[in-house]
Write a structure and sequence with these properties.
Elements: H1 3-18, H2 23-29, H3 31-42, H4 46-65, H5 70-86, H6 97-127, H7 142-147, H8 152-163, H9 168-175, H10 179-199
Length: 200
């Protein structure tokens, strides 16, 4: 078994054995193996590069699945994979690989939240008096801490519409806020969350 095949076997077997929900932990335990794949990929080894991309895709799906809506997952993973490809030469082998990958993923996530905020802002301006079909942002784990920093009304509106997926009308009934106020609180809350994430 050659060195590339051995690295692929070690990383892929452990990731698959743990399942998708534990891929992040499996890859963390294999930092050294992933770093070696990256070194080989940087030197032009196409097999190592293909293996590295496969494992990074597993990691990114686990990372983003806790932070965005399922329907947005594939696009954000592909966008981040492209960024990884473009930044391949910038990784320094004297540094850990996974923190470098996580930094790229976090930047793309923040950029995604900015786009969501801008989209919500346009909906608010165009359709404030009526109902909205705004899609949910699943921020189940990482946003829990951030939501606790928002005023209760803003956090509640975001939880009901962006996480639980209720319509504006349903969220209005559940929270006791008017439909217009629900939209305003979502708008203001997402804007503040974006600022908090940028400062994190």
């Amino acid at each position: 078994m050659g060195p590339v095949t051995e690295e692929i076997s070690v990383v892929s077997t452990r990731v698959r054995a743990c399942g998708a929900s534990k891929a992040h932990a499996a890859m963390r335990a294999n930092e050294a193996s992933l770093a070696r794949l990256m070194v080989m990929a940087q030197s032009g080894d196409k097999q190592a590069y293909a293996a590295l991309l496969t494992e990074c895709q597993h990691w990114l799906r686990a990372y983003y699945s806790r932070r965005i809506a399922p329907g947005q997952l594939d696009d954000l993973v592909q966008e981040t994979m492209l960024a990884l490809h473009n930044k391949l030469a910038t990784w320094d082998s004297s540094r850990a690989f996974l923190p470098w990958l996580a930094a790229i993923a976090r930047y793309r996530w923040v950029d995604h939240l900015r786009r969501v905020y801008r989209a919500d802002e346009c909906v608010l301006e165009d359709d404030l008096p009526g109902q909205s079909d705004e899609s949910a942002i699943a921020a189940r784990i990482s946003l829990d801490r951030l939501l606790s920093l928002l005023p209760d009304a803003q956090a509640r509106a975001i939880e009901l519409v962006k996480i639980e997926g209720l319509s504006i009308a349903e969220a209005s009934r559940a929270s006791g806020q008017s439909e217009s106020l629900v939209k305003v609180n979502i708008h203001r809350g997402l804007k503040k969350l974006s600022r908090l994430i940028e400062k994190a």
